[in-house]
Specification:
By secondary structure, the chain is an alpha+beta fold. It folds into two domains: 101 residues; 71 residues, no CATH class. The chain is 53% helix and 15% strand.
């Protein structure tokens, strides 16, 4: 019993040192656990990034092949559209629309006007360093939706955008190309 009382008195007199010692050891243990958990998290993050990059590479190649197939089909459609037969007042021919490429998105490196849109071509002014994503893509990123409105075209004080819109888009595509986004 005397040894127990002596131990309690010793513990009480050195309580600050005992708690400091235990706190120091727990801090070291916490640091070790934090490093281990952080390393595991970093490994999973790196693995996820690699999987994402591999998938983007595979999907990019698939889209590239599909876009080449679409080019072939569009060439065939263009050839069919050139076939016209006129018999008297009857005009027989094809007017088949071409197929747009699969959207790719990308970083706009220079500000300016661009033809964008998967549901119909639209003209948009995009500022420098704008990241444009294909519709429906996410990969966990928050994206700002770009709402594109036809630019107002005025002629003799009247807005002509609706009437001229298809022709403007065609001319922009012919002269500067489509971004494919």
């Amino acid at each position: 019993m005397a040894a127990l009382i002596a131990g309690v008195i010793l513990l009480a007199t050195h309580w600050g040192q005992v708690t400091a010692f235990i706190g120091e050891k727990m801090s070291v243990l916490g640091t070790v656990v934090h490093v281990i958990v952080g390393s595991i998290g970093n490994a999973f993050s790196a693995f996820g990034t690699k999987v994402h990059d591999v998938w983007n590479g595979i999907w990019g190649k698939i889209k590239e092949v599909l876009n080449h197939i679409i080019d072939g089909i569009d060439s065939f459609i263009t050839g069919l559209n050139k076939l016209h037969i006129d018999v008297g007042d009857v005009h027989v021919g094809f007017d088949i629309p071409t197929i747009p490429h699969l959207a790719t998105g990308g970083l706009i490196s220079q500000s300016g006007w661009a033809v964008v849109g998967e549901r119909g071509p639209e003209l948009a002014y995009l500022p420098k360093n704008t990241q444009v994503y294909p519709h429906g893509s996410s990969f966990g990123q928050q994206q700002q939706q770009i709402v594109v409105q036809p630019a107002p075209v005025m002629m003799d004080g009247r807005m002509m955008a609706q009437a001229l819109w298809p022709y403007l888009v065609d001319q922009i595509r012919i002269n500067v190309g489509s971004l494919g986004i």
